[in-house]
UniProtKB/TrEMBL annotation:
Subcellular location: Nucleus
Stretches of the chain forming a coiled coil according to its record: 156-217
Region span, Disordered: 1-62
Protein name: Meiotic nuclear divisions 1
Organism: Monodelphis domestica
Keywords: Coiled coil, Meiosis, Nucleus
Cellular component terms (Gene Ontology): nucleus
Entry's Gene Ontology BP terms: DNA recombination; meiotic cell cycle
Domain (Leucine zipper with capping helix) ranges: 205-259
Residues of the Mnd1 HTH domain: 86-145
Name of the gene encoding the protein in the UniProt record: MND1
One of the Pfam families matching this protein, by short name: Mnd1
Length: 260
C-alpha cells in the first residue's frame, strides 16, 4: 500500500456520475435517472421462509400446478372449469361424498369456492354425470370413470346420428336444387319471357287497385244491401222492433245505407 493510501481503490461512494456531489457519510445522492428507470419496472414478490424453499425444490410439474392454482384464484374459474375439476375429485378418489365433504375438499384441492360447490354439484347431477342417493337424512354423491365413459359414448353416438341425418338432408336439398335448375339456364328467350311476366304482374296489380275503387258498385254487393234492408223492414212490421235495436243485435253499422 502506498503512502497516504496511494494505490488503493477509491471508496465506492466516490464512483458517481460526473457533476454529482458525493457525501462521505451517506454516499451519493439519489439519481433522478435511476428513479425514472425503476418506475417502468414491474415489482415481483416472492414467497419467503419455508414455503419458498419448498417451492424452489418442487418438481417442474408441481410448480406448473401451483402456478395454475394461483392464476385460477386471481382470475376465477369458469362454470365448465369448476365442473371438470369437481369430476376430477370423484375420478381420482373413487369415493362417495356428502355435500359437506365436497365443500371442504373442492376449495382446498381444486380451487373451487365453497359457495359454488352446491350449485356445481347439482348441475352435474342434473346432467347425469354424478349419481346421488338420499340415505336417511343425508345425500350422498359419487361418480365413477366407467359411467362417464359410457355416457360419453352414448353422447357421441347421438351426435354422430344427428350429423349423418344432417348430411343426408343436405344431399337431398342439393339434389332438389340441381333438378330445379334444369331448364332454367339464362338464355335470351328466358330473359325476354321473364321481363314480360314481370310486366304482366305489374299490370295485374294496377287492375286490382282500379277494380277496388268500384267494388261498392258491384251488382252482388248492391243486391246484398237490398236484402238487408228488406229483412229489416219485415222485422219492424212483423215484431215491432225498433231499427236501432235490429242494427245493434245484428251488428249493422249505423251509417249503413245505399251508395249514392
Amino acid at each position: 500500500m502506498g503512502k497516504g493510501g496511494q494505490g488503493c481503490p477509491p471508496p465506492l461512494y466516490s464512483r458517481v456520475p460526473p457533476g454529482v456531489a458525493a457525501s462521505p457519510v451517506t454516499g451519493p445522492p439519489p439519481q433522478p435517472w435511476g428513479r425514472r428507470r425503476r418506475q417502468n419496472q414491474t415489482r415481483v414478490s416472492f414467497p419467503t421462509g419455508p414455503a419458498s424453499l419448498r417451492l424452489l425444490h418442487s418438481p417442474p410439474h408441481q410448480l406448473g400446478n401451483t402456478a395454475a392454482r394461483v392464476m385460477s384464484k386471481k382470475k376465477g374459474l369458469s362454470a365448465e372449469e369448476k365442473r371438470t375439476r369437481m369430476m376430477e375429485i370423484f375420478f381420482e378418489t373413487k369415493d362417495v361424498f356428502q355435500l359437506k365433504d365436497m365443500e371442504k375438499i373442492a376449495p382446498k384441492e381444486k380451487g373451487i369456492t365453497a359457495m359454488s360447490v352446491k350449485e356445481v354439484l347439482q348441475s352435474l347431477v342434473d346432467d347425469g354425470m354424478v349419481d346421488s342417493e338420499r340415505i336417511g337424512t343425508s345425500n350422498y354423491f359419487w361418480a365413477f370413470p366407467s359411467k362417464a365413459l359410457h355416457a360419453k359414448k352414448r353422447k357421441l353416438e347421438t351426435l354422430s346420428a344427428q350429423f349423418s341425418e344432417g348430411n343426408q338432408k343436405k344431399e337431398n336439398l342439393q339434389q332438389s336444387i340441381n333438378q330445379a335448375k334444369i331448364g332454367r339456364q339464362d338464355t335470351e328467350e328466358r330473359t325476354v319471357l321473364s321481363k314480360e311476366l314481370t310486366s304482366l304482374r305489374q299490370r295485374k296489380e294496377q287492375l286490382k287497385a282500379e277494380l277496388e275503387k268500384y267494388k261498392e258498385c258491384d251488382p252482388d254487393v248492391v243486391e246484398e244491401i237490398h236484402n238487408i234492408f228488406a229483412i229489416k223492414s219485415w222485422a219492424k212490421k212483423k215484431f215491432g222492433f225498433e231499427e236501432s235495436k235490429i242494427d245493434k243485435n245484428f251488428g249493422i253499422p249505423e251509417d249503413f245505407d245505399y251508395i249514392d
